């Protein structure tokens, strides 16, 4: 993606009230993330989230917003079987009010992304730490930190762009690799724990409001200190992303 464009700010969002607050504070993209399994349901993983959950929360967010782009995660088990299975669930998510769906996985998902995008459904790809594969990855760990895995991620990113992906999320990858991948693509990238050189940044809403329990990942910043209320904290996040102040060195790998 071209370097000198203003960075865009993304937050996860699960309901109508926050949709309006985030949009009014300048958030460009609302991501209805399957992280709702963690922050709304109290699960340790995103694996138990259902298509019905994602459809319900997409409808809530769509009712509260009128200009932000709404991207909804396809939940675990709703797209891995076949492109046809993915289309059936994606169509229900789009009907609920999302403009794009997000799919975790590298080149193995290229056929599915091509199937959806050629049939009118824009797709955001997601590589690096893909939380739906937590049991295979052995935890929520940094990805692409060896020469071989870095090359694989770069090749995945190129394959996903070629298959018709409109956007690419990179989660927990070294900042240097995220920069290289962003420069190698013509579609915008969205980073979380991927350094400052992606086209946009995303955080889980509850994390940036300092509400999440337990150990906080390195890439999280609480924007409540220094803000007089929630809308101001969100506006400060948007400003920090757009001016390149967030993420700082302490948030990257
Ligand atoms: N509230 C919340 N925030 C998230 O960012 C998030 C979710 N939930 N649920 C789905 C996934 C899971 N994610 C996670 C969860 C834990 C770490 C974590 O513990 N990271 C540590 C350890 C790194 C390591 O062991 O290498 C870190 O210091 O960043 C990172 C991402 C990101 N996503
Ligand atoms: C953190 C983002 C990228 C996500 O997938 C989610 O919130 O589920
Ligand atoms: Mg997700």
TrEMBL record:
Membrane-spanning parts: none
Residues at the catalytic site: 171
Keyword Zinc, does the record have it?
Answer: no
Instruction: Cite the entry's keywords alphabetically.
Output: Cytoplasm, Magnesium, Metal-binding, Methyltransferase, Pantothenate biosynthesis, Transferase
Positions that bind 3-methyl-2-oxobutanoate: 34-35, 73, 102
Q: Name one GO cellular component term.
A: cytoplasm
Instruction: Output the Gene Ontology terms for molecular function.
Output: 3-methyl-2-oxobutanoate hydroxymethyltransferase activity; magnesium ion binding; methyltransferase activity
Primary enzyme class = transferase
Note on cofactor: Binds 1 Mg(2+) ion per subunit.
Metabolic or biological pathway, per its Swiss-Prot or TrEMBL entry:
Cofactor biosynthesis; (R)-pantothenate biosynthesis; (R)-pantoate from 3-methyl-2-oxobutanoate: step 1/2
Q: Which reaction does it catalyse?
A: (6R)-5,10-methylene-5,6,7,8-tetrahydrofolate + 3-methyl-2-oxobutanoate + H2O = 2-dehydropantoate + (6S)-5,6,7,8-tetrahydrofolate
EC number annotated for this UniProt entry:
2.1.2.11
Binding locations of Mg(2+): 34, 73, 104
Location of this chain's protein in the cell: Cytoplasm
* Entry cofactors: Mg(2+)
Q: Name one GO biological process term.
A: pantothenate biosynthetic process
What does the UniProt record say this protein does? Catalyzes the reversible reaction in which hydroxymethyl group from 5,10-methylenetetrahydrofolate is transferred onto alpha-ketoisovalerate to form ketopantoate.
State the family it belongs to: Belongs to the PanB family.
Tell me which NCBIfam families the record gives.
Answer: panB, PRK00311.1
- Assembly notes: Homodecamer; pentamer of dimers.
Which PANTHER family does the UniProt record give?
Answer: 3-METHYL-2-OXOBUTANOATE HYDROXYMETHYLTRANSFERASE
Name assigned to this protein? 3-methyl-2-oxobutanoate hydroxymethyltransferase
Species name for this entry?
Nitrosomonas oligotropha
């Amino acid at each position: 993606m071209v370097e000198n464009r203003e960075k865009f700010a993304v937050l996860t969002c699960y309901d109508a009230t926050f949709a309006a607050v985030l949009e009014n504070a300048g958030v460009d993209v609302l991501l209805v993330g399957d992280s709702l399994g963690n922050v709304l349901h109290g699960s340790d993983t995103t694996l138990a989230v259902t298509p019905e959950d994602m459809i319900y929360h997409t409808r809530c967010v769509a009712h509260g917003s009128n200009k932000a782009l709404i991207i909804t995660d396809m939940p675990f088990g709703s797209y891995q079987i076949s492109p046809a299975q993915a289309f059936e669930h994606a169509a229900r998510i789009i009907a609920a009010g999302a403009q794009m769906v997000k799919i975790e996985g590298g080149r193995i998902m290229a056929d599915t992304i091509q199937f959806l995008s050629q049939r009118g459904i824009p797709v955001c790809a997601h590589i690096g730490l893909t939380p739906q594969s937590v049991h295979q990855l052995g935890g929520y760990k940094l990805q692409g930190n060896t020469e071989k895995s870095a090359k694989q991620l770069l090749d995945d990113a190129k394959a996903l762009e070629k298959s018709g992906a409109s956007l690419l999320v990179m989660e927990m990858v070294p900042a240097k690799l995220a920069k290289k991948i962003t420069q190698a693509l013509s579609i915008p990238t969205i980073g979380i724990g991927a350094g400052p050189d992606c086209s946009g940044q995303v955080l889980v809403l509850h994390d940036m409001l300092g509400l999440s329990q337990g150990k906080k990942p390195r890439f999280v910043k609480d924007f409540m200190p220094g803000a007089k209320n929630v809308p101001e904290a969100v506006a400060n996040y948007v400003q920090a992303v757009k001016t390149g102040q967030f993420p700082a060195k302490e948030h990257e790998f």
